[in-house]
Write a structure and sequence with these properties.
Blueprint (H helix, E strand, L loop, with lengths): L10 H4 L12 H16 L3 E10 L6 E2 L12 H11 L7 E12 L2 E13 L15 E3 L11 H7 L1 H14 L3
Antiparallel strand pairs: 1-2, 1-3, 3-4, 4-5
Length: about 170
Amino acid sequence: MLPEGISLLSLDAIGCTSEIPETEPTLEGNAGLKARYVSDNFRMDCIADDTGLEVAALGGAPGVYSARYAGPAADPEANMRKLLAAMEGKEDRRARFRTVIALCLGGQFHYFEGVVNGELLKAPRGTGGFGYDPVFQPEGSPRSFAEFTTDEKNSISHRGKAFRALDAFLRTRV
C-alpha cells in the first residue's frame, strides 16, 4: 500500500526483538510510544499502530485493552467470551473498531485514524479474520467481519482506512 521509494522493514529485519510495552491509556499514545521506541533506538523513521474495539454500552471498553481484555495471557476466544458476557442483556450493541497509526518521520509525529462503526452480535458468526471479528457486524452489512474475505474486509476496515490516509500523506512527501 505504500508509495514507490519507501521501503518497509519489519522489526525482525532491523533487529528489534524487544517486546514494546503498551502502557499508554489511549490508542494514540500506544502507537506513538511504539514508533518513538523504534525511532530512538534504531535511528530510523517508523510507523506503528494500535487498534481497539470500543463498545458504547461498556463506556468504550475494551478499547485500548482489547487484546488483553480477559487478562494478560488471554487469547482471542477468552476476550470474545468476556465481551459477550459483559453485553448480556444490553440493548445498545453499538460498537466501533478504531485504528491509530503513528508515523515518526524526521523526528516529527503524524497520526492517522480509521474507524468502522457497527454493532456486536449476540453470538459469533464466521471463521475468518481474527480477534473480535466473529462478533462484529459493520454498519450496512448483514455479515460479521469473520464472514468477509480478506480483500472485502481490507476494503472497508479501520486498519485499511488508516493505512490509506497514511499512504495519501506519504505520497505528498515522496
